[in-house]
Amino acid sequence: MLKAAVLGATGMVGQIFVRLLEGHPWFETAVVAASERSRGLKYKEATRWRFPTPIPEKVADLEVVDPTPSAVKDVDIVFSALPAEVAGKIEEDFAKAGYTVLSNASSHRMDPDVPLLNPEVNGGHISLIDEQRRRRKWDGAIVTNPNCSTAIMTLSLKPIYDTFGIKRVIVSTMQALSGAGYPGVASLDIVDNVIPYISKEEEKMQTETLKILGEPSKPADFRVSASCHRVATLDGHMEAVFVEPKNEASPEDVAKAMNNFIGEPQKLKLPTAPAKPIVIKTEEDRPQVRLDRMEGGGMSVTVGRIRKDPALDGIKYIVLGHNTIRGAAGCSILNAEYLKAKKYL
Amino acid sequence: MLKAAVLGATGMVGQIFVRLLEGHPWFETAVVAASERSRGLKYKEATRWRFPTPIPEKVADLEVVDPTPSAVKDVDIVFSALPAEVAGKIEEDFAKAGYTVLSNASSHRMDPDVPLLNPEVNGGHISLIDEQRRRRKWDGAIVTNPNCSTAIMTLSLKPIYDTFGIKRVIVSTMQALSGAGYPGVASLDIVDNVIPYISKEEEKMQTETLKILGEPSKPADFRVSASCHRVATLDGHMEAVFVEPKNEASPEDVAKAMNNFIGEPQKLKLPTAPAKPIVIKTEEDRPQVRLDRMEGGGMSVTVGRIRKDPALDGIKYIVLGHNTIRGAAGCSILNAEYLKAKKYL
Amino acid sequence: MLKAAVLGATGMVGQIFVRLLEGHPWFETAVVAASERSRGLKYKEATRWRFPTPIPEKVADLEVVDPTPSAVKDVDIVFSALPAEVAGKIEEDFAKAGYTVLSNASSHRMDPDVPLLNPEVNGGHISLIDEQRRRRKWDGAIVTNPNCSTAIMTLSLKPIYDTFGIKRVIVSTMQALSGAGYPGVASLDIVDNVIPYISKEEEKMQTETLKILGEPSKPADFRVSASCHRVATLDGHMEAVFVEPKNEASPEDVAKAMNNFIGEPQKLKLPTAPAKPIVIKTEEDRPQVRLDRMEGGGMSVTVGRIRKDPALDGIKYIVLGHNTIRGAAGCSILNAEYLKAKKYL
Amino acid sequence: MLKAAVLGATGMVGQIFVRLLEGHPWFETAVVAASERSRGLKYKEATRWRFPTPIPEKVADLEVVDPTPSAVKDVDIVFSALPAEVAGKIEEDFAKAGYTVLSNASSHRMDPDVPLLNPEVNGGHISLIDEQRRRRKWDGAIVTNPNCSTAIMTLSLKPIYDTFGIKRVIVSTMQALSGAGYPGVASLDIVDNVIPYISKEEEKMQTETLKILGEPSKPADFRVSASCHRVATLDGHMEAVFVEPKNEASPEDVAKAMNNFIGEPQKLKLPTAPAKPIVIKTEEDRPQVRLDRMEGGGMSVTVGRIRKDPALDGIKYIVLGHNTIRGAAGCSILNAEYLKAKKYL
C-alpha cells in the first residue's frame, strides 16, 4: 500500500481525490495538505464536504498540514489539486525533494519535459519523465493530467486520429458547475442562464489537445478551435465536436473505431481503468449529462449522435465525460497507477 | 387598423402573438383560432397563459374558433402559430381564400415560391409572393419566418456575408425550453441536464440558412453544419458560431460590420423593428441568456466574444436571440409590417 | 425466491420497483404489466427508463402484459404502481384472484379494512388483513403504503407520538419533481419558480397521518394541517414540521427519541429496512435534499434543526425523505418483506 | 427634486435602489457610496450590474465615495443598503450629521425609538422619529424597513389582525437567491437542492412581525414561529402562512378583508405605492414565484389558496412578494415618500 498525500485536499478536486482513494487497492490518503487557513484543523473541520457519501473515516480526523515537503512526511506519492496560482512552485519543491507529483494543476502542463498524460491516449509520454529528471536534476517527477474538457475530448479523438488522421477539430462545450470549484459560480449567475466564457479554457483545449495527441516531443499537426460555455449542470461536461479527418471516415467507421478502442490501462487492468474508455450510445438523444456522466465510474466518456458533418466533409458527434473524475482526480489516479505499472513509481 | 386572426392562438407561440399584438399600432387580434378542443371556449378559458402580464383584455373574452377560412371571418391578415403537422394544409386553405398568412410553421418554409423572410436579411424575397400567386393561382399569400435558431443566426451572418463572403459555418446551439412549446420538455429531463438533440432542428438550420442568405430563387453557396442542444433556460437561444469567410476578416472588421448593420425595416421605421438588429457586447462574458435576451424588445440579437478562429482561418463568436420573439412571433409580425410597407398587404 | 409482478411497471414508480427489486434476496420481477399501449412490447421498448443505471437485464426483455389476473400468471406477489384512476378496481381483481397486492396507489388507502402500512410506524395494522379477508370474502389481500409526504412525516412523528403524545401538527412541504411522475411537471413551469399546489396532497397528509399513527381501527386523535409545494428538485421531499406535543418535549428530548427509534423491520433485519429509520443531522443547514435523500439507501429519513417552536409551545424541525423510495416503491417492498416475515405471504 | 445618496450602492440591494430611483418623480441618485474597495471608481466600473436594463446613465459615471458624512455631500436624503456588520455605526453618523437615513439593514430595526416601517401596515410608527431625536439628540433620523420575508408577511397579516385579531402565526418560507446578495449562494449548493437554513431569518420574522403589527412602543401580543428555506428561484419569496385568529374568520372573510385593504400610501397616492397592496389570486395554483412576483411593480404581495386550517381552527394561505423590491429597496423608497408626505423630510 502506497501512502499518498493530497495537496489542496479541502477544495472541490481535492475532495474527489479523497473520495476516489477510499478503498483504492494500491494507494491510501495518508496526508492532507491545504492552505494555511486550514492548518492544524482536522480534515473534517476544514472541509465543506460536498458529497452524499460521508468523508472517509480514516481521513476525517487527519490534521491538515501545509503543502510543503517539510510538513508532508512519510508519503510515497503526491497528488496535487492545488490552484494554478500556487501549484507551479510547490510542485517543483516536491519533485526536488524526490516525490512523484501527480498534478491536476495547469502550471506545468505545457512544459516540454512534463508528461501531460491521459493514459489511454498517450501513455508513451511518460518517457518525458527521464528527460525531466535529467534536465531538472531532480529525483522526483511532475506528471500532469489534462484540463477537464481536454481530457474528455482527446479520449474521443484518439481512435479517430489513429485510424483516419485529423486535419481540424472544432468544439463547443457545455460545462458543469463543479468545474469552477467551490463556491465557484454564483447561483444568481446561472439559474435560467448560460455563461459563454470560462477563463483560459479555450486556450487550454487548443494547446493541450495537440500536445496529448502528438509525440512526446512533437505536438500533433492539426488545428483546434474551441468555444466554452457554462451551463447549470452539477457535474459532467458535454462537448459538440466537429472533426475534419485526413482520410474519409463514415459515422459507422468512427463508431466502430471508438467502440473497439482500448488503451494500455485496460490491457494492464489498472484498478481505475474503465472496461471501455469510450461507450457509444445509440439512442438519438444521448449521451445526457445526468444519465451518462457516471459511466465507467466516471472514467469512461460516452459518445453519441455520430453523424456526417456537411461543413467539414467530416463527422460530428457529442461526447460527455465526468469533469472531476475523468477530467481531474480520476485521471490523476489512473496516471499514478500507470506509472506504478510502468515502474516509474 | 387591420384585423388579425391568430391561428394556434392558445399555444406557446400563439400566446406570444397575442401578447405582442397588444397595443400594436397597425394590427389588432380580432379572431383567435385553435384546435377543436378549444372550440367555443373563451380565449382565457382555453389558454394556460404563461406570462406575468395578464391576457390582453380585449382578447381574453374572444371565443375560440376553428382554424378554417369559414370560421375565421372579417380579418385582414392571418398569423399562423399552428403546429407543423397541420399547418401546411390549413395555411393553403387560407391563402386560397385570399388571405395573406404570416406563418411561423415549418411546412412551407422551403417551398421555392414561398418567402422565408427575416426582413433585415432578405426583404427582397417578398418578390416570391408574385410568383407564388401566379403558380398557385390564389389571391392570398403564404409568407414564412425562419426556424428560431436560424432567424437568430442569419441576422448575425448577414453583415459577414455581405462584407466578406462566407465559405463555411459551423454552429452549436444552447436552446431554451420555450422553443419546445408547452408543456414541452419534462422538468425531470432537464434539471441538472443537457439534451443534445432537438428533432429536425439541425436540418432546418442547415437548409433555411442558405435559402435566407441566397437570392430569391437561388440558395447561397456555402456550407453549414449545426449541432443543437437543449439547456435549462426559459427563453433565449445562444449559439456558438464558427465562420470561414471568403475574404480575410478580423474580429474588429466583423464587429464593425455587425455594429453598423441596419436593414430595410430600420429604414422604414417599422413599429416592431429594433433600432439595432445586432447589438455588440464587449464584456468578456456576454451575451448572457437572462441578461440580454430582451435586447431591442427581444427583436435584436446580441453578439459577443468575436475572436479569431484558429481552425477555420476565420472568426468565431456568440450570438443570442429571443427564440419566441425574434425567432418566432416577433419576426412574423415584423414580416407583416414589412409587407404592408411594401404594399403587399 | 418469490416471483413478483409489477403493475404499472413502465411509469416512474414502476421503474423504481424494477430497480429496487434487482438483486433483491427474496423477490424477483417476473412479470411486468402496464396499460394496453405497451402490450406486447418488450419492457425496454415500452419504457422511457429514467436512471443512470441500466434496466436490469432479466427485466429488459420481458414482454409487457395487461394488468389483469388472467394476463399476469405464475407470480407469488403483486406490486402495484398503477395510477389511482385505475388502481382501485384492478387491485381488487387481483385480491379476488388470491393475490397479495402491495399497492402504492391511493385508491384503497383509507378503506377501514386495508392496512396503510409504514412498517416501522404501524406494523401491527397488518391484522386488518384478516378482517379484510373476512369482510371481502377473498383469499388475497390489498396492503397499501402511504402517500410519499405522509410516509416521510409519519416516520419522524412516531417517536414523538409514542414518547410525548401529539396535539397538533402543521407541515409545509417542498416536494420533488419525481413525485408528479413522468413527464409530470413541465420544465417551463418550474425553472425559477415554485408551484404552491399539489392536487389532493394536503388532504392525503391530513387523513393518512391519523390512520397510520392510530390503532388499526381507530385513527389517532390529533389535528394535522398541511401546505404542499412543488420545487425544482429531482428527488427528495423536504418538510418543515411544527408539532405541539401533549407533554413537554425539549428539542434534546425529541432528538434523543428519534435517534433511539427503531421499528420491527429493524429487529427482523428485513433486507430493505435501513439500519436507522431516522438519521439526525446536527449541522445547522442540514438535511439538504441532494446530499441526504439517499440516506439508508433512500429508506431512512433525515431530520435536522430540531428547535423550540414559540407559537405552539412545542418543537419544529426539518425532515427529508426520498419520495420514490421510502415514499413509494421502497416502502411497498419493505411492506412485502414484513408480510413475509409475519407469515402473511 | 431631492438629492439622494445610496450607501452600499454596488451590492444587490444597492443596485435595486439605483434602478428604482431612475425616473423617480421626487428623488434622484446624486451620490453613490460603497466600501473603500470601490473608492474612486466610477459606479459602472465598481458594480457587477445584475439586471437586463442598463445602469441609469446619470449614475453610471458617478464616482463612488466612502459611506461617511464627510464624503457624501449635498444630499437631502440617505438610503442605506449597507451590510448589517457595518450599517449600525455608519447610519448613526449620518443621523448625527442631520441626515434622514432610510435603512434596509437590520442593525437598528429593533431599537425601541427607531421606526420599523412597512407603511401600509404601521405608518403611525413614524412618531418614533420625534422620540428618537429627543433621546439621541440628533437632527437626523434613522428609519428602517423590515426584513424581506417579514415585510411580505406583515402586509398580508395586517387586514387579518385589524379585522379578526391574531393569536398565533406559523410561517414556512421558500426564499429566493437574491435574498442572499451577490455572489451569495453557490450554484453547487442550490441546483437540485433546498437549503433549510437562512442565518437569523427566523429570529427576524419572529420579532419584527410583532413590532410592526404593534403600537409604536408596544409590540403586538401574539405568537410567531418561522421556518426559513432557500430554494432555486431568482427573486420572490413565497411563504406558507398558518394563522389562528382571535375571532372566527372564514376564508371568504379573510379574502374580502385582504382584497379591500388599502393603506395610507394608497390614499396619499405616493409614487411607489401599488394600487392594491394585496392582490388576491383565485386560481388553485397561484401565486407562483415567476409569474406573480412583479405584481404592482414588485410592491404588491399576492395571496392565494386561502383555506381553512384544521390544526389551528384558523386559516392558511400562500403569500408571495418581491424580496428586493417590497422586501428591501422598494419599501425603503416608499418609506421616504411617506416621510415626505408627512413632512418628516
Estimated helix fraction of chain A: 25-40%
Tell me the overall shape of chain A: globular
CATH C-level of the largest domain in chain A: Alpha Beta
CATH fold assignment of the largest domain in chain A: Dihydrodipicolinate Reductase, domain 2
Find the CATH superfamily of the largest domain in chain A. Dihydrodipicolinate Reductase, domain 2
Described by strand count, sense and barrel closure, the largest sheet of chain A is:
6 strands, parallel
CATH architecture assignment of the largest domain in chain A:
2-Layer Sandwich
Description:
- 4 copies of one chain form a homotetramer.
- Chain A has a 6-stranded parallel sheet, sandwiched between helices.
- Helices cover 33% and strands 20% of the residues of chain A.
- The radius of gyration of chain A is 19 Å and the shape is globular.
- The first copy, chain A, is built from 13 helices and 12 strands.
- Chain A folds into 2 domains: 159 residues, NAD(P)-binding Rossmann-like Domain (Rossmann fold); 175 residues, 2-Layer Sandwich (Dihydrodipicolinate Reductase, domain 2).
- By secondary structure, chain A is of the alpha/beta class.
- In chain A, helix 1 links the parallel strand 1 and strand 2.
- Chains in contact: A-B, A-C, A-D, B-C, B-D, C-D.
- At the A-B interface, strand 7, strand 8, strand 9, helix 12 and strand 11 of A face strand 7, strand 8, strand 9, helix 12 and strand 11 of B.
